[in-house]
Each structure stands twice: as structure tokens, then as C-alpha cells.
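Protocol step 4 of 6: structure prediction from sequence.
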Amino acid sequence: MQTGQGSPMAQLPGGVAAQEIVLEGEMNYGEIQIQDRTGQQQQFSLEAAPTEGATDVEAVPTPPAVLEVISDRQEYNEQTQVVTAMGNVIVRFQEAVLSADQLQINLNSKLAIAKGDVALRRGQQILRGEQFTYFFVQNRGQIQQAEGEISQTTLNQDLGVRPTRFGVSSNPAVLLNERLLLNQPATGVMGEDGISFVLGSGRDIGTRNIDTQNNTINRVRFQAESVEFVGDRWEAKNISITNDPFSPPELQLVADTATYQKVDEFNDELVTTKTRLVIDNNVSLPVFPRTFRFGESEGIFSQVSFGYDDEERGGLFLQRRFSLYRSAQGRWTVTPQYLLQKAWFPDTILAETEDDDAGEILAPGLFAVSSKFDYRFNPRVSFAARGSLENLKLDNFKDKLELNFRLEQQLGNLDNPFRLSQEFNYRDRLFNGSLGFQRVQRSLGIVLRSPRYILGDSGFAVDFQTSVQNIEADTDRPELLEPGVGQDQVNLTRYQGSFNLDHRFPLWNGEPLPPTRFEGLRYSPRPIVPYVSLVTGLQGVAGVYSNGDRQNSLRGKIGIEGQFGRFAGNSFDYTGFNLSYTNSVLSDELSPFLFDRAVDQRTLEFGLTQQLYGPFRVGFQTAINLDREEAISTDYFLEYSRRTHGVLLRYNPVLEIGSVNITINSFNWNGSTDPFTNEEIRPVNDGVTP
């Protein structure tokens, strides 16, 4: 037995490669190789003796694996058949690394016990504890006083701001505080998008200014009294789970028991009992459901969620998403909806519609459904379908159904491709600035969308879009209507091309605070960077219709936006603002349709958001048509923002939007939060539908 000194190990020593943590059940260990740091080695066999009555059936032999152990010193007791390694113990097995102060292996029982600052790491997953017990034969083990991290980075993390658009009508879903956070200079610490739950999102606007993944919690850490695992399944007792990288956590999920296991190749599942959501160790709320899946968009609050659509759903409705099909290539979900306000509070419905089922409880007119299907044939070709039925009454079925189909092929470089798509839309609902919501009865055509190009070192970016579509939509020109037809819809073919050129000039950048719990990350999921930027953009659109009409426009935008303060002080430590002016030159002719008519020639957009006290911010943003002197869209919002979670109250009197947005942020130290968005309604920018 050699003598030496061993120091406690809180982390793996330098030079040891971190691997992943899952222990595969098929691994067969035949030998243990122990080496001290002087280079002396010993080998011990773990092979079991042949059993009596063994058959002669040939089987494909599996080469036994070698368990590698490195330590400061080691000893072997021949009587007890116990191998002991002491001091800075490192164990390599199944592409994982275990470190401890001491390791004992019983060669007879195939039992290993590691003690003292035990750390087991594989990839981004970590388990730590005071004692680790592992049975090689059953691939079963237990960790006492366990703590660790679970990482689920199953999707790509790139977040890219799209080209500058024009006016709030480009995306009134993205509030000022979210826009400033997305546009601020990059930092090394970022809160990744988390779980978002919206209550009452009336007539949501749905294009995204960023590309982002589904809302998921991708990294959590936990502490437990004990963790037992068999293969890649583990069970914990008295467990606390948090998305907060700091301690004590401001938000944690506490449960008596938790079971974590792999459901399929896409999702892992966490099942808990007696679950509570604890905020600042003071407020404890029961949580339902108690089954969470990592890798799906469903989260803590989405077992049953709420929505709001006064025009088609009669106001507030209840919904639940079900996944009917999921594979490596695609997914199909169906979301039944119960029209809560229409059933229980019919007198409060704002829309002037008559329905015999209003005020009933289980009538067909009180149920609706929506569905999504996505399938990727290969890295370049994909198909997407969206469908919605505003209620289950079969009369006037064609006036209740909404459908969208898109077959898309990516051309050129897949990192920044052209996108060629064949699209069909039935009863598509679009938002066209001061003309409000417009309905396209049906459209069929081909659209080519270019990648975003950066022009050399100038900082200018450009993209373009061309399309040919046959469209049937509302018009206000009676000469285009067929005689005797009792509807205001006309069918025409539209040929359209557009381009966007934009540049953001940084005028001043400040320095963020360090990413600590009391400084840069006190109230924000990422450190706030003070800045002021000059925003410019140019958009050109040319459209020709089969009846001979044309609509051409050239629109320019100039504005300033920025934020002061770092949102870390007790009060008035954050002010965000934006101010922009847009002017367009139109041809003498306008579109025969209403949904793509360019009517907002001169617009002014401005907004302000201000910290009041602690995590509370209040603000507004608006866009005004200067020719008509009327608001296009105005949002008022009150926000409660914390590092790990937030609540946003929003009201838009122009678009009749009222919502409560609850967000739980995730921390992978890159990415950003996901803005308030919805895909059901798309905006129109000078006649162009993105």
C-alpha cells in the first residue's frame, strides 16, 4: 500500500474530457485496470465463472469492456476481494467520467462504492453527491445527497433578427421591450427561450421577427435526498428543480418524488408527485400537470391553456393540444377547443353574431378544433399544413374552415437558402394596417423568398421576394364584380416582386453589468446593454394584376431606438424608447383587393417602456397614420420581470387584444427570449405577405 495525500474534488481535474452521463445497460465489463500516478498498473477480472448446465448454443461474443481507474494510491485485499483506490480517483467507463475521493470495488458482488465529493459527468449532464453505489451486472446505482444538471439541447439555438420592416403593422405582436432586448449588442450571457403561457390573446398577429425554437426548458439543475437509477431511468426523493443558475434560486419546482426517463428518441419525461412551484422561498403554488416532457413545446402551463378570439370563437376559449403522430421527420397535433365565454357568458360577447348554441353547455357550436402537421422529407424539402374549424356545427361548413398548405424546397446553401414554396390558403386572415383585418377567401401560387445578404463590409443587408398567385378576395370596386353575384369578392392573378434594404447604425454602446444575480441578471434573463442606434430601411414593391391594375410603391424608414440603464437598480434604472418615421411613394393605381392595398403612406411609430420599481416596468407603443391622423395599432403593457420568470399584462384597444403572458426562462448562456407571437394571423407590409 502506497501512502499519499488526496484532496477533495469538487470538479474534474484538468485534462479529463467531459463526456455524457447516460449509463447503457448493454455494457459488459470484464476487467478493471487500476493505475496510480507513478504509472504502476494492476488488472483484475470481473468475468463470472461458467454456470453448470450451460448449453452449447453459439452466441455472438461481446468483447468485454475495461473499467479504467486512476488514483494517487491503491490497495487490494485478497481475502475480501475488494479493490480500493484512494486520492483524486478518476474512473472512465462508457464514455463517462466519475471522480471521487475514494472508490471500492467488490470483485465478487460486482459492486462499486465511490465516496467523497462524487461527480459523474457525461456531456452537459452532471450528477454530484456524497456517495455513489453502482452494480455492474444490473447497471443499477444510487447517489446519496445528489445534485446535478440536466441539459436538453435538442434543437438548434440560432436566433437571427430578420430585415427591418416598416411600422407596427409589420409585427405588432413584438412589444418594445422585447424588440430592444433582441436588437441590443451581443453579450456572452443569454437567457434562452423558455416556456410561455398566454391567457386571452385576442386576434393575435402572427409573423415572427426572429427564428426560434419551440418553447422549452433546456437546462435545469436539481438537488435530491437520493437518486436511484437503472439504465437511463432515475428516480429521486425530496427533489428541488430550478432553471435559476444561482443559489438560492428565485424559482424552483419542489416534489416529494420525481422519475426521469427517455420516452422516445425525441423526448425525455419527468413525472413528479406532490409538486409545488416555489417563488423566492415564500410563495408556494400547486402545479398541474405533474408530467413534463423535455423537447416538446408543451410545458408546465400547457396541459390546458386559454385563448381569445372574439370574431371566430366568441371570446375566451379553453384548449388542449394532443400529439397524434411524431417521428424524426414530422409531427401532427390536434387541439380541441371549448368556447368558454360563448357557453357561460354569452351576454359579454363583443361580436354581433347570433348563435342558437350560445348559453348552452355541450352544444356542437361550443366546440372548435385546430390542427398542425409538419413533415420534412429531406434536409431541403418540407411540407406544412394548418387547419382550423371555428365550431362543430355542420351548417355553412365552408365558411367556418380555414386551411393553409405549404410545400417548400430550400435551394442553394442550406445555412442561408432560397426558399421556393407552393402555397394554398383558404379563408386566410390578414392584418393590413389601418384597413384592419381582411379575409382572403382562397389563394394558390408559387413564392420565392431569398436569403438575407450582407453587402460586403458596409453593414447593409438585402433580401427579396417574388410570387405568382391566383387570389380570390374582397374588393370595393363594383366594376370588377360579376353581375348578379351577391358577394364582394373578385378572382385575379397577381404577379408581385419586392425587396428590402436595411442598415442599423450604432451611435453609442454602453457596458453591461457582470452576469451575477444582484447585477446584470437581477431582473433580466440576460444583461442589459445600454445603446442608441439609428435604424434605416428601404422597401420596394411592384405588383401587376390580371385585370391590368398595378400597385407600385417605394417606402423609406428612418428612426432611432435605444435603452438606458441596466435594469438592476431598485427604481428608474431602465428606459427604453423608439421613434421612427416612414414615408412611401405610390403609383397612381392601387390594388383591386383590400387585403394588400398600400394605404399607410406616412406613418409615425413611437414607444416607451420604463422601470417603475423593482421588477415592474410599464410602457406603450403605437403607430399612427399621419394622413388620416388615426392609430393603426396601440399597445399598453405592464410587466413583472425576473431573471427566471415574468408576467406581462397587455391591452390593445385598436386591435381588441387583451392578454396575460406568463414566461419561465431557460438558461443555456446563449439565445434569447421568445416574443409574444402567434401564427394564425399574418401582417401585410405594403401589399407583401411575408
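Step 5 (inspection) to follow. The radius of gyration is 30 Å.
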